[in-house]
Amino acid sequence: MSKRGRAQDHQTSVERPPDFDEFWAAIQQELEETPLDPTLTPVPMRSTDEVEVFEIGYTSLDGVRIAGWYCRPRESYIAGPYPGLSIVPGYVSEPTLPKSWAKLGYAAVGVAPRGKLRSNAQFNPGYPGLLIHNIVDKNTYSYRGFYADAARAIDFLVARPEVISDRIGVHGSSQGGALTLTTAAMRPDNIVCGASGAPYLTGFMDAAKLTHSYPYEEMNEYLRLYPEREQAMRETVAYFDCINFAPQITAPMLIYAGLNDDVCPPETAYNLVAAMPGEVTLHVHERCGHDAGNFWEMAEVEAFLAKHLRPNTPTADLRAQTTVG
Amino acid sequence: MTETSDTADVPAVETSDAEANLTTTPAPVSERGNASSPAAPSAAEVAAFWDQIDAELAAIPAAPELEEAPLYSTEFSTTYKVRLTSIGPYRIAAYLSIPHGEGPFPALLAVPGYGSVVTPPQYEDRQRYVVMTLMYRGTRHADWPYAGKFPGVLTDGIADAGSWIYRGILADHLRGIEFLRSRPEVDASHVGLIGNDISLLIAARRPEITAVAVGSSFFHRLWEVAAETEAYPFEEINDYLRTYPADREGVARSLALVDPGAQAAAIRAKVLLTVGDDGATGDSAWWASLRDALGGASEEYHATHEGQTDRDAVDAWLANELGSEPKPRIWVPEEIGSWS
Known about the structure:
The structure holds two protein chains of two kinds. By secondary structure, chain A is an alpha/beta fold. Chain A has helices spanning 20-32, 99-103, 142-158, 175-186, 204-210, 217-225, 230-237, 242-245, 266-274, 294-309; strands at residues 2-5, 39-42, 51-59, 65-73, 82-87, 107-112, 163-173, 191-197, 253-258, 280-285. Chain A has a single domain (35-309), classed as Rossmann fold. A nine-stranded mixed beta sheet of chain A has the order 2-3-4-6-5-7-8-9-10, sandwiched between helices. In chain A, α3 (142-158) crosses α4 (175-186). Chain A is globular, with a radius of gyration of 19 Å. The two termini of chain A are 26 Å apart. Chain B has one domain (43-321): Alpha/Beta hydrolase fold, catalytic domain (Rossmann fold), CATH 3.40.50. Chain B is 30% helix and 21% strand. In chain B, α4 (165-182) crosses α5 (198-205). The interface between A and B is large, with 69 and 66 residues.
């Protein structure tokens, strides 16, 4: 069995660009100047006696139309208004259809950021490919729009009359764990809590050196072909690193990680938590990988979100669908 | 900040898709009209369904194209993007990685899960196997003319097994394993499958497969599973039956035709079944009828739910069966002071 240093002792190489805040303020300005133009189309086939399901759409950065699922309790099942919840997707997984969360009492959106199915008409770098798409240019890097799309889902929820706009949470694992963090940083006035599993896009360069598993392996592959671009890559990803978003996260956060995660190395989770000034709880699981201990953590996540978001869950035995990255 | 290290003594194998829920989520049983299954098709009907697929495959050339993919190649292996023709005719895709050096090498097909994205083979697998990941119709790189919707693919045409999209998808899997076994770099006496229970369907139709590691159920007893869960992708069945209740018989028949339990006796490969906690769907008792019917040897692995423990155990079993070496992912942390 191989050995390596303790995760909690790892020193990050991430540096915060001096114009990080200005870079994202300009993106936010662009978003504010872009009408949301939300659409809401009922999906009777996926709806039940308890939950109404809608396919949604809205406009995000660069005018890209973003799709998603929106699930809310029926009034006859649980009377509104409802706390909001955004369930953000992993790298390769399809966006969650968050019916089980709506059954717990949330107005829940499962967003498909650009490049995901149903949001890929205007932008489609593919998989693998998203992580390294324009990775030498911060102004056109894939995650510039991708992060905005996830934050924009909160704007969608805020615009819904049945949603309690100052009681919105965000949750996901892996890439969803990263989007949980960036969304909390980009929408601090609306997000009151977040649960982030196996956070990805955290310590990009360090992580790639610690693993040969996808998606970070995309960076290693790219640098094998183009080693001279490493500095440009490092400069770009610094603008998108969750460690650099951490100081702006004010909401309470639950973070969980596997101590043998080959996909998102646990070292980066410790580096992330160290950079977070707010209230943060870290759960780590020995011998767990990218599952991040979700067999045990889902109950913790549900309880954490319920504590902060206070849904009117009708019975205690209901459970959300397990979140995977 | 509070920090806790929490590893309890209860167990699911690492899977990256929603199939993982089968062994982890005991869901309430509700009455949706599909709790009891209609009469299953006869063994002759099952055989006819699959024989027809094989006949169509035999009639259409695979016409393989291989294109080297430098981005996914390493100092120890070369990876190719592959195009193949399956029934329809339909052009499907795959990634194929071949180790450098003198073969032949053991081979592995990583059976894809339910979702639109298939990645190139895992780094550790490229070091020891001729390894292929398959993009069946509807997934990215195999999404013309059929762009699959997830959710949606599972029930697309399900009321009629003859036109159900999964008839073609299962043929795509068979085409993939045929191609892999045909490669001159492959040691045809050491060919394995890893993935969900679609692996068992492949092994039943291609009894020359050596070893199968089944991490989760997909089609086995799916009619019953759907009645007991609201988790996707299985909830697709419930969505469909709510919307089209008159199709109940047709849906049940389609699912029965692709239940690996109906063909277990034809499987000659050694099988490792990952089983869940006692009393949960996917536990040892739940698999018993299939396991007892297998035509070859089998073992069970009881999932611990520690993702890397479970992954390493299955990896070691498969490597042993294929005459290769395990590549564990668990590492031992040691105090080395400050590091970067």
